[in-house]
């Protein structure tokens, strides 16, 4: 070897874009080495290389350029946007160029994700993609939202999309993934893009790809910190104060004596005055009759408990810290990310704490083998005092149930606060049996929700570990083999403590219950990939074999009898229960995909998957799923190429049949006897509900027609798509006559159709030297329709199902207002002839059970959902806003209905709207008279059905990027400070609720979402 | 060479995975067993029976609609002896809880029918079992028939006028076998015929022995039969059945004041047991609602007119002035310590004193007044050492027996309501009731029964809304 005296030289220059603007962070590499640098904020670079070496300049979205290193210089490199560079999209089992996709795939890119630094990735999806409905029910941080893609295609099986993380079905909680560590999210909506997932694809697929490093780039470190403060995004319903509550209850009692029990008005009023305290059991007024015969208060209340104030956080704090290191040599790249989050919730003491770590390494072993490993470890801890459900200690139920009339602290019969031995006030659990006044609360006795928050504990610890390794072998230039092994373990560790002295477990000296659930998934995927081209014809064939095994290992134990402050089962004196089970599910699949393209203009794709699932019997477990799709890029055809305002135009069509086997348990087809019903020392079993032994897959047929376009030199781009998705053989608990002793039988019943139009537009309105304005709008119209039933109709709660109607059309009694003569609530009923035929006429009735139920013409599904986003960059400032909206849906506000019960039972909270009640004959109002006895006035009817439109500013991010020269001295590559606002503004048509309600459209006792104001800083080293 | 190696790797991989032919057959349920395990052995069938009995005391719907005990307590609060504070069972206390959409209505229908379905599966499975002996089958079936009749009897009581009113009236549908199709309403006559036929088989075949007092043995079957005959007014049959039912379950006054929470008490014939690891927590009635001193809900009190019936030396006089308000008219002036609440308290369903009283009433009505009076005095003296014979005859004796039933059985099964219904008397609230005359029931008042639940009308093609017209 001859050693030539080559000299090291310094090469410097500036890299700019096509407009001459400097490109900071562009890469300069000495080709064939690991020697490389990045440009500074002004686009300047300087690199020491051997004379004559080749230098490559590159920047994302721009075509790379190379020059020979010479001493001439400085070089002025102007990179041009790379239109030919194909945007690569993550799809099922691989990636594809955006152009070649024949189906419907929406992508949320890395830059979209980074512009809205949210806590979880689902927040990034909401409002960003048309045809997807994300609903966050409740304000407990760390809770997963409900996600529906293109309507609701299943009733009893899961209607949720399949989540794929780095190639493997994900069985953990989505909130265990830190948004910061995500590179892109693809939402697959049509059959051709999801068919490869076969039996699990019917509800769409969301593919999350996590970050990886880039080969041949210098190591980069990124640090970020965000601090925020949260409060309720929308106010809760207003509630009556103690004085109004007391006077109104008196009125209800008096009315009841007068109108129901036929006492004279004077006698009724007297009875109400003398019985008020005994009915309400407590007395904040300290006088025997707090309300006189005229209905006026005779004293001042010693307390008026504002339960909201007691239990809600006015400011909840949030902090998040992130660190990532990434880079790569010529053969190996890596990404390491670590993220810490702690967020408080709406109810005091609620918090979510998460630590998420991820390491991703890929390496090229030799010229034909490459391999990689992606590992993640997430651990989270959540403290969640009850804030949903029917437990007495549910704080939200408490706020909406217990009037201000009842005290927070225990009171003696005279109303004085009772203290413990240390002089601290005791909470009132409403179970002071020893005294008749301020003794036993008529509602939710033996509990105090605030006491439960402080004394009890409901902890949920989750640990999530995944390892995802692959080896790829290039057998021929056109043929490669890839083997993926994906291992995932999700550990749920729930621990509950109920206090030994106060509340529900006081009589057994406290209770500890623990749950430990292990979910282990092993997924093996073998892929053979062949691609070749013959002239303008290009082929790609994938053959995939997949096996999937999920095991659920459950264990729980419960014990009572604890000493004070002992909160572990070892301290238990009496075991109360122990349980456990192991459930397993397997899936075996053969998959193939053939794609063809002609001259980058015509594309066709065929997918086929055969799945065998252990969830069904031997005879019904195999299913075939397929799709066909094609697209035509008109803009590449000669007759369009001449039209100069069309930059890009594509038409696409796909059809396929998919399956759904999720959300139906492990062995839904087996008629079995359930264990665990022991009678003292004897083993006991009972028969499970009836099932159909031939139960099989739900199937979905999905048609997609769409167009994608870019017009006016990139000024406007977008897509319009129509879909029609029909799900047949729905797995449903078909109601059977109650008197058979079965509520339902699980079988394949009927079909439901979802169809709709989706629009997505994006416009680069302005791009000048110092100003960039980019606006986007997406929305969809989705309809749901029952297309087949095996019987004429079902009544399902407040919905009735029949062909031609939606699953979500309310079918309830129609309110006919309040009768001005007596103040009673009225409803409509059909007039029928003696033969039972309807005459078409309808009259009012005061008997609720006689009233006819009608389709209200209102659905809980919104008619239109969508989002609007804006991205504005001005000099060093940038602003990113994301708004989402939902129109045309209705909500049945059962919480409000409860607050409008009009004192039929004592000790139930009321809404200030009650002031409009009927008081005397002739009163025209929509609120019936108060009656302190059981009545149907607030029973389910159109009276409480409300329009639920909303617009929400989901995210607002305003940032400043420092581009100062002084930063270089401190080796800072980037510095950004920003303000982030989440849910900071909501416009809603029905107040008092969180507008994001369960799909069924019935409100329940749940906390609201939070609005958060945060400040953050991001440093690149 | 290298590439060959790679190809081999690929093939071996495909081969290994592809060869596991039973890969999809391996997963099997671990939380359940299939029917062959249940019906092919006596132990299996007994496990099913244990499960059925366990479910009868479960937490079916909500705190006041939990299991059999909730049906009984809802009857108790409708009468004149108990005063319910503002607590669960509030609207039952007001005799205003019978509309088709209400929880009470739905529960009182759905719960017995779900028990009947399990029993039909039980009976069907035992009948068709190929490995049980005929002798084994007979004993196992007897328990099934007894319980099925018992739950149909509850439906008859809750959903129509009493038997004596009109046997042609529409009554709940009868299912003899497991069914998935609804059936039309039956009639009271047909329903009682079905109940009797089940019970007649049961009293012949149910074993004498049992594992513990929560199971059905021949005494229990006879006790169920005695109650049915008592309602039907078949006095000789009622007397016969009651006599057999109480054999071996002697009176023991000393156990009366011990909290009514232990089924080992000698008088208890049939019970719902609890244990700290098999508890219904705060659901259990009457204990959680009538015990005003422990940690239950409390707030059930007793009518001063009822309390005044007890002499101070009567062991059943468990009444206390818990709040120190004197002998006044405050509805909460008289609490009772009869039932002691805890998570492991057992619940009485049938006791021998009730059987004795059925026998006494039957004998009195059959004209055998001397024997009736002497048995009555026997009971009265067991409860109160100072009890004296009343010397009553005729109607006065019958009335004395009915009062004795209330004094003996208060809180347990709704005796006041049961007697008022079967004897077609009304309920007139007296004394210091919180809700007085508005809750009165006239003789044969429709409020003695519930409407048919909307859920049944919605799901049964043979029953429409007209079933509730005039109900």
Please describe the structure with a list of short key phrases separated by commas or semicolons.
heterodimer, A: 1021 residues, mainly beta, Immunoglobulin-like, five-stranded mixed β-sheet, 11 helices, 47% strand, globular, B: 471 residues, mainly alpha, Serine Threonine Protein Phosphatase 5, Tetratricopeptide repeat, 9 strands
Residue share in helix of chain A: under 10%
Describe the biggest sheet of chain A?
Answer: 22 strands, antiparallel, barrel
Number of strands of chain A: 51
Radius of gyration of chain A: 33 Å
CATH architecture of the domain at 8-78 in chain A: Sandwich
Topology:
The complex is a heterodimer of chains A (1021) and B (471).
Chain A: E1 8-16, E2 27-30, E3 36-38, E4 44-50, E5 54-58, E6 65-68, E7 75-78, E8 88-91, E9 94-97, E10 105-108, H1 110-115, H2 121-125, E11 132-135, E12 146-149, E13 162-165, E14 168-169, E15 182-188, H3 191-194, E16 205-210, E17 217-232, H4 242-260, H5 265-280, H6 307-311, E18 316-328, E19 332-344, E20 351-364, E21 369-383, H7 395-401, H8 449-455, E22 457-474, E23 479-498, E24 511-534, E25 537-560, E26 574-598, E27 602-613, E28 622-633, H9 638-641, E29 646-660, E30 673-675, E31 685-687, E32 698-711, E33 716-728, E34 731-735, E35 744-748, E36 751-767, E37 771-788, E38 794-796, E39 799-801, E40 809-813, E41 815-818, E42 825-832, E43 838-845, E44 853-859, E45 864-874, E46 877-887, E47 890-892, H10 894-899, E48 945-947, E49 950-962, H11 966-969, E50 974-988, E51 1010-1020
Parallel strand pairs in A: 1-7, 13-16
Antiparallel strand pairs in A: 1-4, 2-3, 2-5, 5-6, 8-9, 10-15, 11-12, 13-14, 15-16, 17-18, 17-51, 18-19, 19-20, 20-21, 21-22, 22-23, 23-24, 24-25, 25-26, 26-27, 27-28, 28-29, 29-32, 30-31, 32-33, 33-36, 34-35, 36-37, 37-45, 38-39, 40-44, 41-42, 42-43, 45-46, 46-49, 47-48, 49-50, 50-51
Chain B: H1 2-18, E1 32-33, H2 35-39, H3 42-55, H4 68-76, E2 82-84, H5 90-93, H6 103-127, H7 134-159, E3 170-171, E4 186-187, H8 188-205, H9 218-232, H10 235-245, E5 268-272, H11 287-290, E6 300-302, H12 304-307, E7 319-320, E8 335-336, E9 347-351, H13 352-365, H14 369-383, H15 394-409, H16 415-422, H17 454-459
Antiparallel strand pairs in B: 2-6, 3-4, 5-9, 7-8
Helix pairs in contact in B: 3-6, 3-7, 6-7, 7-8, 7-9, 8-9, 9-10, 10-13, 13-14, 13-15, 14-15
